[in-house]
Design brief:
- The chain is 39% helix and 19% strand.
- It is of the alpha/beta class.
Length: 322
């Protein structure tokens, strides 16, 4: 009998050891789990940087924590904030202007939102106003009277397009408005159905890159002085240049830009958001490999310019980095 037990013990030791090793990562450290089993990240259009970076981040979360993390393609910023307020998502990529308006309960929001906390400031979204080389549109003022795609209705693109138009004395009554996302706007320009389009995103925008390969395009400038004037009432705008050669342009293109924000549901636990924040920053190289825009994200800049309350879990992570 003793001999049988000895044989069984020898057989079971490797199995027990293997089970114990199954919870360790490649460096032999046991990974910490999350209280939640689902992290849905609201992004934007399928071809935009939000969705590309968000999909990579969701894959990281699924791999590290063994949870169901996925992206949800949306109309972007305004819809993302509303989805969070309705308890339908856990995280989202948004433009800072939209979050600022949501916290204040103005423009697209009838009352202040309460369930949106910030994890980080991300990279700048550049206002990219594209037209065809033979359209006759050279300055922002030339947009008056033209048929223009301003982004999906109530998207971050549409919100800042409306703000910039108003800042130049142009209302929607002065133009023909089409509510189109990135890919649809590019198709409309290619087909000659549009005179110009707003494609506000990180650089480069995939739809605009593809369009520039098949159509002779021009990027419309926004004068830095005009951006500074508009920023007196809309402080989230800054004057930046689209670098030369981004879309075959020989010179930098002066324009307006808005910082993006990574936000999280305020009711998520401090421990969970701490872990999600930590993994986000540890994955920056991977995120940068998925889309060039993510290479502009840094730990230092992420802690500046917050437009929503900082979640306690993110705050704890930043405190540890000091």
């Amino acid at each position: 009998m003793k001999k049988i037990w000895a044989i069984l013990l020898v057989l079971f030791i490797p199995i027990i050891t293997a089970c114990g090793e199954g919870n360790e990562d490649a460096e032999g450290e046991t990974g910490e789990g999350l209280e939640t089993n689902i992290v849905t990240i609201a992004t934007g259009g399928s071809s935009g940087p939000y969705n590309i970076i968000g999909t990579t981040l969701a894959e990281e979360y699924s791999s590290v924590f063994g949870i169901n993390s996925r992206t949800q393609t949306t109309g972007a910023s305004v819809e993302n904030v509303n989805l969070m307020e309705q308890d339908k998502i856990e995280m989202a990529f948004t433009m800072s202007d939209v979050v600022s308006q949501a916290i204040a309960g103005e423009v697209s929001f009838e009352q202040p939102v309460e369930k949106v906390n910030q994890i980080a400031s991300l990279y700048p979204n550049y206002v990219q106003i594209v037209t065809t080389a033979d359209s006759g549109i050279e300055t922002f003022e030339d947009l008056k009277g033209k048929r223009i795609a301003v982004g999906d209705q109530n998207s971050g693109v549409e919100v800042n397009a409306r703000t910039l138009l108003n800042g130049h004395g142009i209302t929607y009554d002065d133009i023909e408005v089409d509510y189109l996302g990135y890919a649809e706007a590019a198709d409309g320009l290619r087909a000659g159905q549009l005179d110009a389009a707003f494609l506000t995103s990180g650089l480069p925008n995939a739809s605009l890159m593809e369009l520039s390969e098949t159509l002779d395009i021009r990027l419309v400038t926004i004068n830095p002085e005009d951006v500074e004037s508009i920023a007196q009432d809309a402080s989230y705008f800054v004057a930046l240049d689209i670098p030369a050669d981004t879309y075959g342009n020989q010179e930098p293109i002066p324009t307006a830009a808005i910082m993006n924000a990574l936000v999280v549901h305020a009711d998520m636990s401090e421990d969970d958001v701490y872990q999600l924040t930590k993994t986000f920053f540890e994955s920056l190289e991977t995120l940068g490999n998925s889309h060039q825009a993510a290479t502009d994200i840094s730990l230092e800049a992420a802690q500046e310019g917050h437009v929503a309350p900082l979640h306690p879990g993110a705050e704890r992570y930043y405190e540890e980095q000091k």
